[in-house]
Amino acid sequence: MPDTRGGRWSAVAAIGLPVGGAVATVGLWWLVIIAFGIESYVAPTPPEVAATFGRMPGYLLENAWVTLVETLLGFAITIVAGVLVGTVLAGSRPVERAFMPTLVALNAVPKLAFATLLIVWMGYGRGPKVVMVILMCFFPIVLATATGLTRTPAELVELARALSASRWQAFAKIRFPAALPQVFIGLKVAMPLAVIGALVGELFGSTAGLGFVIQTAGADTALSFAAIVLLALMSMVLFYALVAVERLLVPWVPETTA
User: Fold this and answer.
1) What is the pLDDT of residue 82?
2) Distance of CA 197 to the CA centre of its chain
3) Cα 183 vs. chain centroid, distance in angstroms?
4) Contact 213/223 with Cβ under 8 angstroms?
5) Measured between alpha carbons, how far is 169 from 181 in angstroms, rounded to an integer?
6) How far, in Å, CA of 235 to CA of 57, rounded?
7) What angle do CA 26, 212, 228 make, to 5 degrees?
8) Can you tell me the distance from the alpha carbon of 236 to that of 11, in angstroms, rounded to the nearest whole number?
9) What SS3 state is found at 97?
10) To which H or E segment does residue 162 belong?
11) Per-residue pLDDT, 120
């Protein structure tokens, strides 16, 4: 009979270790507040934050949904645009040399510099938040795509030539699939930035969203912390959803990199 203890331990560890880490973090947060005698109006305890969820669940979830939609919409647009631009840069050395310095320079500009301008240009609706998400995520996805497409293993290139594959066939069947692990690295780097981008846009001007909750909470620090906890949970769930998609689309990576 095969030994299943290793598999059971892996399953328990996959769930238990993250939960244990979260509990330890919350415990440390609570301990610091107690040890230093921090007043609740400065930093609330975990029970006070939990009470806020019980006191205002509808308000928090409604605004969390607004932030989630902004994040997903901006991230989806950035995936399409970033992969397309990265593909163009990887396919033409002159184009890469001409435009990569400009992309690097734009990425170096603090995104907060655009926040007020976006409100002036687009108002207080969803638009500025989606654009801020795009600004935050665009460069990592472009860079990861271009890097992956320019590092196709030589043996796969030779295989395409031996099979007399057209340029499109080589791209669709060999180059892009081989680049997917690198592309997903860029996506995983960009995903938390997408949540940050939506939050920044909301903090600078909005009528809804978790950034709006934080901005208007005033002295109710427990409400601000509840919004921050929701942002952290949102980022974590979206990140691991992306990891699940990666395992579905690139199933060979864990075996080849183990």
Assistant:
1) 95
2) 10
3) 13
4) yes
5) 19
6) 19
7) 10
8) 19
9) helix
10) helix 154-162
11) 86
- Return the exposure string of 53-65: e unless at least 16 CB atoms fall within 10 Å of the residue's CB, then b: eeebeeebeebbe
Can you tell me which residue has the tokens 């631009």? 85
Is 155 buried (19+), middle (13-18) or exposed (0-12) by CB count in 10 A?
A: exposed
The two structure tokens encoding residue 85: 């631009």
The whole-angstrom separation of Cα 98 and Cα 20 is 49
The whole-number pLDDT of residue 258 equals 46
In angstroms, the first-to-last Cα distance of the chain is 26
Q: How many residues are present in the chain?
A: 258
Nearest of 256, 252, 111 to residue 194 by alpha carbon: 111
Q: Please check whether residue 186 is in contact with residue 144, taking contact to mean a CB–CB distance below 8 angstroms.
A: yes
Give the whole-angstrom CA distance, residue 71 versus residue 238: 10
Residue 79 in tokens: 């995936």
Under 8 Å between Cβ of 124 and 156: no
Dihedral, 136, 140, 142, 145 alpha carbons, nearest 10: -150
Identify residue 245 by its one-letter amino acid code.
V
pLDDT of 184-201, one tens digit each?
A: 999 999 999 999 999 999
Consecutive sets of 10 residues in the chain, 258 residues long: mean pLDDT of each?
57 68 80 80 84 91 95 96 93 87 88 85 88 94 91 70 70 82 93 94 88 89 92 93 91 60
Between CA 160 and CA 171 the distance in angstroms is 10
- Structural tokens at position 43: 């930093």
